[in-house]
Fold this protein.
Amino acid sequence: MGNSQPEPIEGKLGGTILGPTNPSREAENPTIMKPPSTDHGTLPNLKWSFADSHMRLNEGGWSRQTTVRELPISKDFAGVNMRLKAGGVREMHWHKEAEWSYMLKGRARITAVDENGCAFQDDVEEGDLWFFPAGIPHSIQGLEDDGCEFLLVFDQGDFSEDSTFLVSDWLAHTPKEVLAKNFGVHESAFAHIPKKELYIFQTQVPPPLSQDRVTGNGKMPLSLSHRMLKQKPIVTKGGKVWITDTSNFPASKTIAAALVEIEPGAMRELHWHPNGDEWQFYISGQARMTVFAAEGNARTFDFQAGDVGFVPFPMPHYVENTGNTTLRFLEIFRSDHFADVSLAKWLAFTPHELVRAHLRIDESLLAKIPKYRTPVVPA
Ligand code: MN
Ligand code: MN
């Protein structure tokens, strides 16, 4: 699956392409080229690849974003993929959206200060999360050996990395005599502040956190970081699921997430979410998802590492591993809790005679549905 060049031919239907082709793109999207016969009707686009997002290059790293401008249906979420080299800093800043993050590779030092002057600093690594509430100032810096790369998710689709409140940008646009008065020093103290924003810049790798720590007015009441991959996952025959929401990461009040691992051939079961849209980020492997939109409409999409997928509230779907390697992806919700409804459970826990009258399936099938949670089913 996915290795041969797809053609828009199904028996007597369709025909060869005579005009321009884009073989690598078509090979990545076999079910767009030749949709399953169960697909029908028109759905909005539910896929965007970060490979198509504009790269912003800076000394110290890069960033690219997938917002409502790239994926118009994503009104509640924007994503940013960022790389910081060792010592590279995402400048001290804040914004009107909350920021949730998953560390993809490497290590970073994160800092924040809240409205009570409580200070937060932590070093995070692969599989760790952070959550910066809206309006709370923060920073991110890459550590040894090779800095880091991470995914940021914001709880508003129209967020832009290019319009955050940066300390350098603010001070460059404040009269120097006002800065002097504010700090009770001479204007000359601000002779060397940057004339424009830094955004991402290169500086020295910081010393160990024990030597770098500032306590401010004390510890924040809620930790802004969380070790997601250190949680005990739900393990099934087809894969694993790590769920993080306010039940185990209380600071993350507006974002709930599941990290899903699916073995080759296995799939995330047929389900839907009763509490909002789903924003997905594919970390590794390849996948296929069909979204059912009611009124007989359904559309299938293929995904690779670095792709973003989207499922509008409360449309049902599955995610199948169509590759030869472990599929890993994130399900993100704008909610304080993770929730899903399983088709299998719904059928098994409804009087069986009623279910059989609808679907004409055997009692043996209903009896087979396990009572324990199986978010990922084996091949
Ligand atoms: Mn930020
Ligand atoms: Mn889902």
User: Anything to note?
Assistant: The longest strand covers residues 99-113. The radius of gyration is 24 Å. Residues 176-183 form the longest helix (8 residues). The CA atoms of residues 12 and 34 lie 13 Å apart.
